[in-house]
Amino acid sequence: LCSYNIKKKKKELIGSHDATIRCVEYCGEQNMIITGSWDKTLKVWDINNNKQISSHDLPDKVFAMSCALASNRLICGIAGRQIYIYDIRNMKEPQQKRESSLRHQTRNIVCHPNGEQYVVSSIEGRVAVEYFDPSAEIQSKKYAFKCHRVTDKSSGMQTIYPVNAITFHPIYKTFATGGGDGVVNIWDGQNKKRICQFPNIN
Predict the structure, then answer these.
(1) What is the 8-class DSSP label of residue 90?
(2) Which of 138, 139, 153, 189 has the greatest CB tally within 10 Å of its CB?
């Protein structure tokens, strides 16, 4: 893990993991970086001093990670469809341990700007909108849908693509998904509908 000072045009080594670093999250208010690795750990780094603050063992590889700064949460998508949710102010133990509602490997996970929801995608062309609040009333609002699938008109065969990228609009709170099919879709999560689809970029 390295930092680059644009003014000084200088690269500095912050630290390392024992295997590939899969995810990096920057927490500006706390002046720290959180990294998730295939060495089955999360590490927290002080970017002012380029020092490791803490290390946290996980049951398996980190595949996806996102910070909800509005609610001080960090969410990790781990191999085996596991999801760990932390309070970034105290990361000794996860606040919640869940199993993804999607039946296949997690591909990406991104927190909603409101800090109360997150969107998770899988390798099997599905996306789920979920909530941090574990109460039954709130959990009843979660839902999932299919996307990034292409059906051949002549044969009727359907090709299913992984949903590789998710990002939220900071103002309108809509979100975009990018799939292995080369297509970007824009979704209205609140009204559960697709707003538009951009042309295939392949």
Answers:
(1) B
(2) 189
Q: State how far the Cα of 202 lies from the Cα of 45, in Å rounded to an integer.
A: 38
pLDDT in tens, 91-139: 999 999 999 999 999 999 999 999 999 999 999 999 999 999 999 999 9
* Cα three-residue angle 81-84-90, rounded to 5 degrees: 170
Q: Structure tokens of 121?
A: 């995608």
Q: In the structure encoding, which two tokens stand for residue 20, read together?
A: 């590939």
Residue 202 has pLDDT above 80, yes or no: no
Average pLDDT, the chain: 95
In which residue are the tokens 């609040």 written? 133
d(C-alpha 180, C-alpha 40), whole Å: 26
Question: Cβ neighbours of residue 62 under 8 Å, at least 6 residues apart?
Answer: 22, 23, 36, 37, 38, 40, 42, 76, 77, 78
